[in-house]
Amino acid sequence: MADSVTSDDQKFCFKEVLDAFRLCLSENKEVYMEHYVAGWRGLVKFLNTLGSVFGFISKDAVGKVQILVSLLKGEDGSHYSTIQSMVKYELENQLVDLTKAGAHPTSGCRTLLRLHRALRWLELFLDSLRTCSEDSKTSVLCADAYNKSLSKFHPWVVRKAAGMAFCLLPGRQAFFDVMNVGTTEQVVAMLGEAIPLISEVYQITEDLYAQHNILDIP
Ligand SMILES: CCCCCCCC/C=C\CCCCCCCC(=O)N[C@@H](COP(=O)(O)O)[C@H](O)/C=C/CCCCCCCCCCCCC
Question: What does the similarity note say (predicted)?
Answer without folding.
Answer: Belongs to the GLTP family.
